[in-house]
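Most newcomers find our protein records easier to grasp once they have seen one. Nothing more is needed to start thinking about how sequence determines fold. Here is such a record, shown just as it appears in the course material:
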Amino acid sequence: MQVTETTNDGLKRGFTIVVPAADIEQKVMDRLVQIAKTVQMPGFRPGKVPVKLLRQTHGDAIMGEVLEQTVSEHTQTAITEREMRPLGQPKIEIKKFETGSDLEYDVEFELFPEIELTDFSAIKLERMKVPADEKQVEASLQQMAAGQKDSKPLEVARPIASGDTVVIDFVGKVDGEEFPGGKADDFSLEIGSGMFIPGFEDQLIGKETGESLHVEVTFPKDYTEDLAGKPAVFSVTIKELRESIPAVIDDELAKKVGIDSLDELKNLLRQNQESELDGLSRMRVKKELLDILDEAHSFTLPDGMIEQEFESIWHQFEHQREHHPDQIDEDDKDKSDDDLKTEYREIASRRVRLGLLLAEIGRSNEITIAPEEVNRAIMQEAQKYQGQEKEVLEYYKNTPEAMQAIQSPLLEEKVVDFILELAQVTDKEVTLEELIAAEEGEIKAKKAKSTGDKKPAKKKSAAAKKAAPKKSSNKDKDD
């Protein structure tokens, strides 16, 4: 094998590899001999098929198999001998090959950059902790009770009020014609529930049992295609007025939702609330940690990965701009595509830098994901597609990119946990409002920084001061 370096530019490497024809011919013959031991052909006993005949019938398929194996083996040998760490699969291009001649092909790839890790024990972080709120637990119980409430016929006649339940017959028409699903008898409707088209329930308020009326409404623009935005008239007869009876917050309420007692229900609500609050707290401290890591590390980035990440971000933005323009950030609507592309390239660079950095931390500290963790994550994903679980499992099994997409977040969380264990993390008890305000304040500060607004700079951590020879401008969109 002859290896000639053709590209050595930053992290980019390129080689031309030549494999002698004799080596390929030997591999082909070895494979033919191996197949001849078991192949069956009419007129020949098993294992007695002549190699020459076998080459005539299976030669092309075997040559393709040998070439694929040869390229893979020789490429890996060239990489291993030079102690290189490629990023992803090398790009292969066959330059020249004919039967009986040497194989010549090009290999291109980018190297994993050399990364000098900062001292994680020097990182200082403040973790905002929000304790469980008993008032919120009680509010959740009240909401749960409201969902389990009953109703009874009104004993003394009065006009309909918000919160009442009415029993009605109705027929809806568009352009004078009834439409599917627009008719019902003895339908129970809670006034103020928002179950019906906006404006429908409001027109029943103040009416009384026995009345008939026409309710005029307009279907929302995001309704079904045949009715969206069209005016409709409903002929409504009010047959009965019922008043709501709130459910009592007791053990019976707990049993209605599948819990044995009220105390157990309260504990469950409290645990759920604590889990959500801990998630918000972790999200914030993780963002702060990633900002510090981003500032504290400077290394050469692979252009190919940045371009790939940018293309993904830009494609997502263009799709959103075309199909969901109302979801575009107001700050971005007046910017030119050139300005937006500049900002999104910075975001792509940050994502690539942090992705490589977290991967290197995981590798150098032997942080791995156990197979059962991956399987659990895949099962959770499969459960989102009821009835298609088998297809989802097969998809992940046969799609390396999809498997990587499952594994990467798991590894990222483990690496973050590893760093937080080493860092100087102090807990501060705050209210939910204070946590949200702090988050919003940081987002505004990032936006101001990205637009060049001069604001007081946030004090760097000790780790960032120690190992941050280079700063980059990054927006909050990549968090």
Notes: Confidence is low (pLDDT under 50) at residues 453-479.
